[in-house]
Amino acid sequence: MLTIVIIAESETDLQTLQNTMCDTGEQFELTINIKKTKTMVISKRGKVITKIQIKNEDIEQVDKIKYLGVWITEDLNPKSEIRSRIEQSRASFLKMKKFLC
Predict the structure, then answer these.
(1) Which SS3 state, helix, strand or coil, does residue 43 take?
(2) With contact defined as beta carbons under 8 Å apart, do 41 and 50 qualify?
(3) pTM of the model
């Protein structure tokens, strides 16, 4: 499995890059799993809806995504990541509690 992040300034640029990546991948017999592919718009102006497609199939737009173990939200708010880290720490502590107490 390979994870690729494409960053673009506009929806048109993103669609163009997506098409190029898809076409190039096909030359090397690599396919994109459309069900695992997501788009996310990072904006401080509020929710922005995009319509990116691969082979005439719409790609799901999400408001947060986990990348390299870190939650990234469309408004770059760190709350989801902080909550996730606190929960992971709490779970680890509870596993070790019988050894520590």
Answers:
(1) coil
(2) yes
(3) 0.73
Q: Answer whether 44's CB lies under 8 Å from 37's CB.
A: no
Q: Which residues contact 58 (CB under 8 A, 6 or more apart)?
A: 51, 52
Check: CB of residue 64 under 8 Å from CB of residue 72: yes
pLDDT in tens, 1-44: 678 889 999 999 999 999 999 999 999 999 899 999 999 999 88
Neighbours of 90 (CB within 10 A): 10
Rounded CA-CA distance 7/14 in Å is 7
Please state the domain extents for the chain. Answer: 1-62, 63-101
Q: Tokens for 71?
A: 């939650």
Tokens linked to 28: 């090397």
